[in-house]
Amino acid sequence: MEQLGPKATIMDEAAMARALTRIAHEVIENNEGAANLALVGIVRRGANLATRLASEIEDIEGIRPPVGKLDISFYRDDVSRRVAPVLHKTEIPFDVDGKDIILVDDVLFSGRTVRSALDAIIDFGRPATIQLAVMVDRGHRELPIRADYVGKNVPSSHEEDVRVFVSDLDGRDAVEIWDVAAEKKAIKSGEVDA
Description:
By secondary structure, the chain is of the alpha/beta class.
């Protein structure tokens, strides 16, 4: 069986590391330090990126903000259409009240995932602010949501899929663009495994 590959690799390990360092500096500057920060990553890859971002902030500021992870499965607006959502554990081991929350995700696309995450965080309390950090903003918003911190803006078409890989889950760090139509065609014809 043939192996499918990406159309393009737009960020490698070094580029992702540089983006996280830059985002950490921007977060610290915009919040006048790290004393009131807390990070919440949207599972799965957003949670991994949030942990890395917390380490970057600690390296710069000497303060490690607390990190939580958030499963938005039951907050999604399409939950009733999904047969069986894959559930992950939500862990927010700190009080969100009055905190400056940095919500972290891998890819910002339609904005629906972020909207769901905002609903979920508000169920935990009332933060002072909620700011959004993403590795990739690919456009195509369906809701009035924007990222405060972006690793890379990647204009893409609806026929493309922007995939973020993190070493903890995928064994490598990369951001790639995949051709969805070509992938579906290859799977359907049996050229590659699903």
